[in-house]
Every structure is written in C-alpha cells, then in structure tokens.
Amino acid sequence: MQIIPSMWYAHGLFNTAVFLLFVWQSWLGSKIRIERLIGNPPATTVIVRHRKFGPVITLLGIAGFISGIIIVYFSGGHILDQPLHFIVGSVLTLIILAAFFISRKIKGRESPFRTLHMAAGTAAICLYMIQIYIGISILF
Fold first, then answer.
1. Nearest to 26 by CA among 106, 117, 89
2. Can you give the pTM of this predicted structure?
3. Across 19-23, 25-29, 46-50, 104-108, least confident range
4. Quick one: pLDDT at residue 120?
C-alpha cells in the first residue's frame, strides 16, 4: 500500500511543525518569565498569545501521537514495532498533558506552579528533539 509510506513522512513533518510551535510557545513563556523576574509587567500581547495558543498546541501534540498509532495500525504493524519511539512518544504526550494541567493551577505572580510548568515544557521540548531523532532514524 503506497499511502502508508507517505503517511510516515506526513507524520514526521506534522510533528516537526508541532515541535517548532512548542519552541515558539516556550520563547513566549520565557519572555513573560524574564519580565516577571526583573519586576516588570509582561506585555499583555505576549501573555494573551501564550495562553491562547497553549491549549491548541497541546491538542496538536496529542494528535501527532495518536496519528502515529493510527499509521502503525493501518500499516499492519504492532504499536511496539518501534518500542523506543512509542515509549518516548507516550512519555512526551504525558508531559505535554502535565504542562497543560499545571498551567491551569497557576494563580498569581508568585505561584510555585510557574516553575513546574516551565520544567514540564522544557522536558517536552527535549523529548521532542529525541523523538525527532528516533523518527528520522526509523525512516532512513
């Protein structure tokens, strides 16, 4: 079936785009954090973008994971044909969800959840880089 190899590449390109959105989201969050730490009020437009796009990017990350499972299923494989890719993807998805739910607990300037949210986001970006490397290794 010729469509499946095309789907592998589409899956990889989609998830690379989602990774870049996470990097952008992290950059916005860093701008907000730096301004707060030096005592300045962060720019409202940056806060609005970070809050507006966070849930959307979270859904895109989860969709990327689910699409990988679907592609493997339709290619006749077992989801553990590539165990490392599946495990890293599973952990990545859980960390993305954790970052999202932690963000919902952030209340006020001095919330201890801010640092935890940043750590989860940083972990997600690091895992995305590992996952992209593993995915490229599978293709070639």
1. 117
2. 0.92
3. 104-108
4. 98
The first and second tokens of residue 110, run together, are 């001095």
* Amino acid, single-letter form, for residue 41: P
User: Phi/psi of residue 52, each to 5°?
Assistant: -70, -45
3-state secondary structure the chain: CCHHHHHHHHHHHHHHHHHHHHHHHHHHHHHHHHHHHCCCCCCHHHHHHHHHHHHHHHHHHHHHHHHHHHHHHHCCCCCCCCHHHHHHHHHHHHHHHHHHHHHCCCCCCCCCHHHHHHHHHHHHHHHHHHHHHHHHHHHC
Fill in the DSSP letter of residue 43: P
Quote the crossing angle between the two packed helices 44-74 and 3-37, to the nearest 10°. 160
CA separation for the pair 114, 29 (Å, rounded): 10
Average per-residue pLDDT for the chain: 94
- Provide mean pLDDT across the span 70-99: 93
Residue 13 is encoded by which pair of tokens? 């390109």
